[in-house]
Fold this sequence. Notes:
Largest sheet of chain A: 9 strands, mixed
Largest sheet of chain B: none
Oligomer: heterodimer
Distance between the termini of chain A: 60 Å
Helix content of chain A: 40-55%
Amino acid sequence: MNGPVHSTEFRLRLKDLYKQGNFAEGYRLLARRALATPPFYEYPWLAKELARCVAEPFTFRLGLLSTFTFEPIRHSLSAVALAQGFELKLYFGGFQQLEQEVMILGSGLARHKPQVIVVAWRLADLSPLLWHSPLDLTESKLQGEIEGVLDRAVELVRACRNNLPQSHLILHTVVPPDHPVFGVVDFQHPRGHQWITNSINAGLRKLATETEGVHLLDCEAVARRIHGEAWFDARHWYTARAPLAAEGLVALAYEYVKYLRALSGKTKKVLVTDLDNTLWGGILGEDGFNGIALGETYPGNAFLAFQWEMKMLSRRGVLLAINSKNNEADVREVFEKHQHMALDWNAFAAVRVNWQDKATNMVELAEDLSLGLDSFVFIDDNPYELEMVHQALPEVTVIKTPKEPSDLPGLLSRLGYFESVVYSDADRKRTEFYSAQAKRAELKRSSRDLDAFYRSLSMKLTVYEVGEAETPRVAQLTQRTNQFNMTTRRYSEVDIKYFRNSPAHLLRAYHLEDRFGDNGIIAVVVVKMDRETWYLDSFLMSCRVIGRAVETAILALLIQEAKRASAAVLKADFLPSEKNTPARDVYAKHGFRKVEESPECIQWEIDVAEASLEGPEFFEVIDTTKKTEGKKL
Amino acid sequence: MNEDTIQERVKEVMAGIFSMDPADIGPHSSLRTIKKWDSLQHVNLIIALEQAFGLRIAVSQAVEMTSFPSVCRVVAQSLGEAF
C-alpha cells in the first residue's frame, strides 16, 4: 500500500524548500512523483503544488466537450501536464452539450478561446440503438444509424472550423462494448459491434484526413492498454455518469499531453542514451563483452526490446546520441560483433564515449548537432549522472531508467516526448544529415564550473585502517575492479589479513557518502613501506565514483600521511591492462614525475616533502588514521 | 489495521481530495462542513479510499458515506474490522 504523498514527511520537505525559495527543486520532486503513476487521489494535491513551483510553464488553453461527466480528469490532467512543463487552462463543456458549445456564439467554450478542443464521446451516448440493440435494426437502418453518427461528427467539425477557426480539434474514436453483441464471434461477424465501431472510426479517419486541424485520438488503443474495470467503472457510470475509472483518466491525460506537445512544437528532437544498464544489462568495462545482458533471456530481452523501441524512434526522425563513460573501442566491438545488438553504430547521429563528465559531453553533442539543449532527452541508470547533467544543464530533460529492466520498454512511448503530428520521408533521413553535420563541426569546448556541482553533493570521505569487518569488501574490490585500478593486483582475504598485520604495509580503505546515500567502501590503497620510500602497490577505486575527484582527495590524504611518517618519496606504478585506460593519466595529473616508461609499466614518483597536493575543498574528510599516527618504521 | 491507523489514513486521503490540512478533519467533518464535498468529489473520494486501503466500495456503501465517522466505518467494515 502506498502512503499518500501529502504525508507529513513530504510536506515538510516541500515546506523547507519553499522557505529556502528553492521552488525548482520542489518542482522536480513533485514532477517526478506525478509521472511515476501515483495513486489517483494524489493528483489534486500534486496539481496544486506543481502550479506553485513551475517556473516558466507553457500555457495552453484546452476545452473538453463530452457526452459524459468528464470533470474527474481535471487534476490528473493538470498534474501530468504540469510535470511536463505545460500549464493548462481547462474548460469543461456542459454535460452532453457538444453542438451548443461549438455553435452558439459567446458560449462558455468560445469565451475560453481554446487552442485545442477535445471531443470525447461514447457510442452508448451517440447512438443508444447501436450500443444496446443493433439486432433490432434492419441492415439499412443499421447503416443509416452509422451515417447519422458520422453526419453529427461532420457538422460538429464544420461548425468548429467556422466558429473557432484558431482551435485544433481532437476527436476520440469510438470503442466497442466490453461484451459485444455477438460475443466471441463479434469480431468476425458482418454486423457485430466491432464492425459498427470500425465503420464509424473509418468515417472519422476520413474526416480528420480531409480537414486541416482535426486529429484523432485512438481511444480504442488506450482502452486496450488498460482494459476492463481499470477503463470503465460501472459504479461511477450508473451513479454519476462518469464512466472512466482512475487508470483510464490518467491514460487519457497522457494522450492529451502528447498531442499538446506535438501541436505546440515542443517535440523533443534528440534522445541521448547511456550504455551500461541502459542499452544492455551490466557494465561493459567490468563484465566484459560476454558478460553483458543482451539477448533472448531476461533481462537481456528487455534491453533488446528497448533497443528496438529506440530504433523505431530513429526511423521516425528522432536523433539518437550516446553519452557514456566507457572505452570507445570496447563499445564499438559490442556494436560490431555482439550478435544481439538491434542498434548499429550508424543509427547514432553523434557519440561521446569517453571519461569526461557527462554535462560537458552533452554540451559538445549539442554543438555537434547544432541543436538546442532544450530539445534533448537524456536517459541513464545512474542518479548521480542525471543529477549532474540536470544541475549543469537544467534545460535537458533527464529520465532515470526504471528499477526493473522489464519496465524499460515502452517507457519513452508513455512519456511521449517525441510525439509529432506530421511524419515525412525527411524524418527517416534526418540521422544521416545530422551525423554528417556533427562530423564536420569544428568544436569549441567550453569548460564548465564543476566545483559548484561537486559542492552540492555534500560528499563525505572517510579513511580507515582496514579491520576485520572491512576485509571481505576490500578483497572483493581488489578482485573486481578493472577500470580505475593502477596495478590490477588481485588479493584474497588472506592476503589482506597479512597486510593488516605486516609492519611493512599500510592498508587504507575509503568510504564515501553523499546526499544520495551511502556508497560504502569505494577505494583501497596498499602501500609498501621501506624506510623512507613508500611504494604504492595498489590504488583502486570503484567505477561508480569515477569522475568526482575522489582520487585527488585520496592522494592528498596519502601524501599527508607520508609526511607525518617522514617518508621522503612516494613511488607508484601504472600497469596498463585491457581495461584500465581511464586511470592512465591520474599520476601525471597529480604532480607525479615520470621515471620510466615501457609498454608493460609506467613508473612514477613524487617527493613527499615538496608535494603541494591539496584535497578538493568540497570533500568533508574524516581521517580516522590520525589517532594511531601510522606505523613507525 | 487498527482504528487509529484507519482514521489517520482516511484523514490524509480526505485532505488530499478536498485540499485541506489533515489536522482540520475530525468527527465534526461532513458533507455539510466541507464545501468541496460534492457528488464529483465523492467519486474521487471513493477512488482514493479504494487505492489507499486496497479495497472495493459498493454503491450501497458509497451512499452511506456522508461524514468522516461514516467514511471510517465503511472502510473498517470493508476491511472486515467493524468497530
